[in-house]
Structure to design on (225 residues):
């Protein structure tokens, strides 16, 4: 009886993330060992989840981390020019599964990657929180390609943004060597203002962190052509 009540409460909480008529379930698991829990992975098209993913506001922890790191980067100077004013500034991670693009609401929200450009800094949002970098130089190669040179304490000195689909705001980000990646790495990102064009895969479990969803591997060489 207790398990049935627990399951009923979990189901009631699910519409906070998705309206049932807009939901396609990929996976569902209901268990009572070692204790009752419900885990679901589903495709959501509602605004409620998307608004969380595109929110760049800081919580108290983020603010403390950000301002502490920012002090180490001063003095700051404005580097974004009039020529780059129309280039998108807020980006979130985009993923591919079964040939289609999706946003992703992870089980552990620290795995939600965001990137922000201000007039004097960039911010990399990850497990470490918002990590600021001081802009040293911004080079606009074209209306769809931007190179950022920056200073920070984790050695991520260069970021190239190549917009491969301007209508949908899709871009390939190429990051130089960092303390997290000795060879650099690439990510698929989307302009946060155009995130509404994509559905979201949600990895939902109210009680436990779950293994993150396994998306398709992306061939960045073919995308950068």
């Amino acid at each position: 009886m207790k398990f049935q009540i627990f399951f009923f409460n979990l189901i009631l909480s699910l519409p906070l993330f998705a309206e049932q008529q807009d939901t396609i379930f990929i996976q569902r698991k209901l268990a009572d060992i070692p204790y009752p829990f419900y885990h679901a992975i589903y495709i959501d098209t509602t605004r409620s989840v998307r608004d969380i993913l595109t929110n760049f506001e800081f919580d108290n922890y983020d603010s403390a981390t950000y301002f502490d790191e920012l002090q180490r980067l001063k003095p700051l100077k404005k580097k974004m020019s009039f020529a780059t004013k129309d280039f998108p500034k807020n980006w979130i991670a985009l993923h591919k599964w079964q040939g289609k693009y999706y946003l992703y609401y992870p089980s552990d929200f620290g795995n939600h990657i965001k990137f922000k450009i201000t007039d004097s800094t960039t911010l990399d949002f990850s497990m470490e929180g918002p990590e600021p970098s001081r802009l040293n130089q911004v080079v606009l190669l074209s209306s769809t390609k931007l190179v950022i040179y920056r200073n920070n304490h984790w050695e991520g000195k260069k970021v190239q943004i190549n917009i491969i689909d301007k209508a949908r705001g899709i871009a390939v980000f190429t990051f130089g060597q960092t303390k997290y990646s000795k060879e650099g790495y690439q990510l698929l990102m989307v302009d946060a203002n155009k995130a509404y064009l994509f559905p979201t895969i949600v990895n939902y479990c109210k009680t436990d962190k779950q293994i993150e969803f396994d998306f398709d591997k992306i061939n960045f060489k073919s995308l950068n052509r």
